[in-house]
Amino acid sequence: MGVIQKQSISGSIYSYIGVVLGFITTAILFTHFFTTDEVGLLRILVSYSILLSQFAGLGMNTVTVKLFPYFRNHDKKHHGYLGLALLISLVGLILVLSAYIFLKQYILDETKEGNNLFSSYYFLVVPLVIFTVLFNVLDTYYRVLYNAVKGIIFKEVIQRILLLVVIIPYYYNLINFHQTVVLYIIAMISPGILLFGSLVYNKKLFIKPNFKFVDNGLAKEMLSVGLFGIIASYSGVLVMNIDTIMIERMLGLSAAGIYSITFFFGTLILVPMRTMGKISSVVIADAWKRNDLNQINQIYKKSSISLSIIGLLLMIGIWGNINNVFHIISSQYLPGKYVILLIGLANLVDILNGMSPQIIVNSKHYKYFSYLLLIFALLIVVTNLILIPMYGIVGAAIATLLSKIIYNLIKYIFLYNKYKLQPFTIKTVLLYLIGVAAYGLSLLLPEQPNYIVDILLRSSIITILFMVPVYYFNISGDINDKINNTFKKLVAGRS
User: Fold this and answer.
1) Which of 126, 184, 424, 483 has CA 20 to 30 A from 34's CA?
2) Angstrom distances, CA of residue 122 to CA of 116, 180, 260
């Protein structure tokens, strides 16, 4: 866990700096400076770009994580693997962007309220797709070189600082909405540009492919992994973005704007999981290469309990402050109140299963993960089609929760049946009992007249009520060690 722990802690620090910046941008500036239609536009542009870019990658990110260990050789410039990945992604880009341009009349539905706004900026998705693909390829390349943090800094911190720089002039009427959208797109593509510049600066831009190194056996393996990687990656982002796209199609841009803002709060608990997953995937791939099931099992168990502690604390903290949330983002977003709860619970289900996706996708049974994600994507689409007309944006959140419960149950059964791996202990049950008790006790606190004072007081009490028993019962050895080391450093610093 050494490499994972070190980079996860470092990455989490930058990720949470990004969360603070994202909170300022999404929860405060977006909700007060833009209409719900305009928020919906900005979100739908990003949703389409993420969806298209994953297909354009032609599964190369999966290939990189799984098969790069065979190319790894710095003296030989990793046999030009990066150049090969970029070349294949370029082919995917041409295919995807051609389809997007050709299918414009089918993608747009100008009969829906607000969709003429989307039509005006339809083609701004193109540069977003190009630079999202570039970022994905380079970020994955850095990850397999055991540097997952650099991409996090550019994506979570630098990009969001640039977004702040873009939005504030709009508030002071220094630029109009059209100029804001253009600058917003520039800010969104910046991580890809910065990561490319970083590779050049560090002299790691080895883009001349060594086709001779790729023999028939390796080529077939790359093709197989790539094909299933397309299904896996595409299904994965479909799950994360299809609800916004379907809401926009069925209810309009304004509903998509409300959903995207409230959805943001429900996804805050996933930040440590995303950080840990980036580096864990590389370590797990190496462990599978050595057939080291013991290390994989340790990662599975420790990731589940450690992430559950952080995720559960964030979940009860957010829902415990739910009335304060709408003091911050304004009451026009109240229709999405239960979106926050349902998406938060859905993501807790994900967290409970720890690094299970990384374990499956890097095993010899990686093809099954593609099938699982395909089932998951179909579940999301079908349940959205049923529940959005019935319950609006809350229906989309219910669909996500139901689909994630089924999906994670299948993953759990699969890993247990194939490898006898399962992450739960009696401490898992104890942890959730502590979480319920801490939330219940926090309800006894009277609401304070000033919502900022209420947030600080309520959050502090929830943290104490939750973390003291978590530490006392040693729910996670890793977290207890981190707390102990922090206290030792503080004591040493004072002496």
Assistant:
1) 126
2) 10, 15, 19
Give the helix ranges, DSSP H, for 252-365. Answer: 253-267, 271-290, 293-320, 322-329, 337-352, 356-361
Residue where a domain terminates, one of 256, 282, 300:
300
DSSP-derived secondary structure for 273-297: HHHHHHHHHHHHHHHHHHT-HHHHH
| Cα 99 from chain centre | 26
Residue 489, classed as helix, strand or coil, is helix
- Judgement on whether residues 81 and 227 belong to the same structural domain of the protein: yes
Residue 196 · residue 138 · CB < 8 Å: yes
Question: Residue 440 has which token pair?
Answer: 């219940």
**Please, what is the Cα angle at 219 between 214 and 224, to 5 degrees?**
155
Q: Per the domain annotation, does 107 fall within a domain?
A: yes
Q: Rounded CA gap, 399 and 387, in Å? A: 7
Which residue type sits at 464? I
Cα distance between the two ends of the chain? 31
What six digits make up the tokens of 7? 């980079």
For residues 478 and 471, give the distance between their C-alpha atoms in angstroms, rounded to a whole number: 11
pLDDT in tens, 431-484: 999 999 999 999 999 999 899 999 999 999 999 999 999 999 999 888 888 888
- How far apart CA 431 and CA 309 sit, in angstroms, is 7
Q: With a cut of 50, list the residues of the chain below it in pLDDT.
A: 1
Determine the 3-state secondary structure of 378 from DSSP: helix
* pTM, to two decimals: 0.79
Alpha helices in 77-145 (DSSP H): 81-102, 104-107, 115-120, 125-144
Supply 332's token pair: 């026009």
The residue count of the chain comes to: 495
Count of domains forming the chain: 2
Q: Extract the tokens encoding 237.
A: 């982002």
pLDDT tens figures, 218-239: 777 777 777 777 776 666 666 6
370, 228 contact by CB (below 8 A): yes
Is 338 part of a structural domain of the chain? no
Domain that holds residue 432: 425-495
The CA distance from 11 to 149, in Å, is 5
In a domain, 323, yes or no: no
Report whether 297 contacts 220 (CB < 8 A).
no
Determine whether 173 is exposed, middle or buried from the number of CB atoms within 10 Å of its CB (0-12, 13-18, 19+). Answer: exposed
Q: How large is the C-alpha radius of gyration of the chain? A: 23
Q: At what angle do helices 293-320 and 271-290 cross, to 10 degrees?
A: 170
Last residue of a domain, one of 260, 275, 300: 300
C-alpha–C-alpha distance, residues 164 and 166, integer Å: 5
Report residue 215: phi and psi, to 5°. -80, 180
